[in-house]
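step=encode ok
step=design start
structure_in=
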């Protein structure tokens, strides 16, 4: 039995924050382009909690990871652009410490006044972050009196800032984390039926375990994206030069057979949009999925397949979508993703989008507002839906309590 997600988790509203210094673990891991924030979803999603704290007279120390730093101080992964974006959206200036939880951070945190904001540099500049190092957790905890976890996108990782700090400070779930757990918890525990999962994106291997668990819960699974090619092989079809994961074909075949035996409808593409090369200006052609030319690769699902998924989505009770149906960054191969996004936007089903690239696609089409929920967490939303306990949530349940 899985515990309802928010059971025993302290909420932001439970904390008396006036005049206190609060460490907020946010997920500001945004894509950068030319030194600027390319998609600010995660920055804007962090605002309500920060505004809540500041308007109640707290001072706030915000921390986050960003990308995959090569070493301490790696300029390409500095949170500078995020500090600028955050300041522009939030109002008050946002100071950025030169280190993560070192001398500069300590001095700046100690000088913070109510209503002021300090952003720490990239948590992953400290190797202890991903190792869940208690020493780093202690240095972070020493920067504040209270802790708020609002980093839904990172709470599936047992990192120092996520699962270490709440053992040392009284912690609570921020507003974003609370909303994510509420929405996704509802989808996990009592989805409206039929419950449809639409999965696409790059790799099957990333998502195989999730798939297995999701297949125990959903009524329909529709597959697209590069992932579909591995399903095609498993179904005995050829895939030309499409991207596939040969070593996963057998697992996928087993998975699909088991799902069908349980009455789950598994939809594979009937037609595909293919090209001769992996390029944005390659010429798109539509082919039948069971007649894939040897010298072509699949870059999107075809119009009939997209329409079939749209139909299923239209009569669904709940829809969870993760992973674009094709290379949606390129206009010629974005139609499948667009059709699915539009079908979700106009469906009366409860619609949830999870995954960085899927969310970005939905936003770039201007359809994010028409979804019931666009999750800020890709991996975290998948792990939650598959029924796994999230270390960040578990840590809040057992957080240090102030008397
Ligand atoms: P999300 O971030 O939403 O979880 P993924 O990261 O799994 O999604 O997958 C997104 C990536 O998958 C995109 O960069 C997209 O270009 C790629 N992709 C989708 N379909 C294909 C395809 N048929 N061939 C190659 N790449 C694809
Ligand atoms: Mg992605």
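sequence_out=
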């Amino acid at each position: 039995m899985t515990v309802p997600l928010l059971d025993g988790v302290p909420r932001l509203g439970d904390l008396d924050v006036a005049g206190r210094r609060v460490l907020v673990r946010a997920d500001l891991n945004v894509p950068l382009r030319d030194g600027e924030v390319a998609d600010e979803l995660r920055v804007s999603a962090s605002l309500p909690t920060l505004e809540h704290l500041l308007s109640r007279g707290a001072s706030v120390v915000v921390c986050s990871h960003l990308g995959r730093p090569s070493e301490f101080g790696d300029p390409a992964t500095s949170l500078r652009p995020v500090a600028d974006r955050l300041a522009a959206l939030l109002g008050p200036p946002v100071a950025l410490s030169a280190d993560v939880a070192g001398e500069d951070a300590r001095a700046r945190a100690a000088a913070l006044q109510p209503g002021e904001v300090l952003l720490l540099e990239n948590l992953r500049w400290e190797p202890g972050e991903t190792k869940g190092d208690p020493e780093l957790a202690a240095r972070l905890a020493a920067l504040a009196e209270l802790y708020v976890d609002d980093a839904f996108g990172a709470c599936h990782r047992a990192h120092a800032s996520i699962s270490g700090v709440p053992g040392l400070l009284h912690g609570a779930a921020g507003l974003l984390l609370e909303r994510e757990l509420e929405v996704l918890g509802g989808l996990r525990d009592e989805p409206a039926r039929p419950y449809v999962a639409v999965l696409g994106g790059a790799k099957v291997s990333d998502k195989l375990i999730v798939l297995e668990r999701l297949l125990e819960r959903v009524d329909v699974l529709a597959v697209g994206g590069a992932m579909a090619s591995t399903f095609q092989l498993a179904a005995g079809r050829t895939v030309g030069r499409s991207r596939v994961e040969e070593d996963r074909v057998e697992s996928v075949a087993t998975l699909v057979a088991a799902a069908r035996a349980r009455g789950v409808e598994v939809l594979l593409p009937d037609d595909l949009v293919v090209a001769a090369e992996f390029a944005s200006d390659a010429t798109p052609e539509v082919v039948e999925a069971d007649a894939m030319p040897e010298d072509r690769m699949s870059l999107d699902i075809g119009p009939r397949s997209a329409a079939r998924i749209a139909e299923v989505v239209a009569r669904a009770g709940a829809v969870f979508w993760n992973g674009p149906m094709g290379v949606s960054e390129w206009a010629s191969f974005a139609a499948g993703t667009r059709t699915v996004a539009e079908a979700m936007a106009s469906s009366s089903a409860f619609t949830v989008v999870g995954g960085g690239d899927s969310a970005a696609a939905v936003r770039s089409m201007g359809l994010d507002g028409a979804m019931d929920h666009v999750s800020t967490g890709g991996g975290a939303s998948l792990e939650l839906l598959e029924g796994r306990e999230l270390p960040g949530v578990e840590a809040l349940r057992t957080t240090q309590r102030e008397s």
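step=design ok
step=annotate ok -> The chain has a mean pLDDT of 95.
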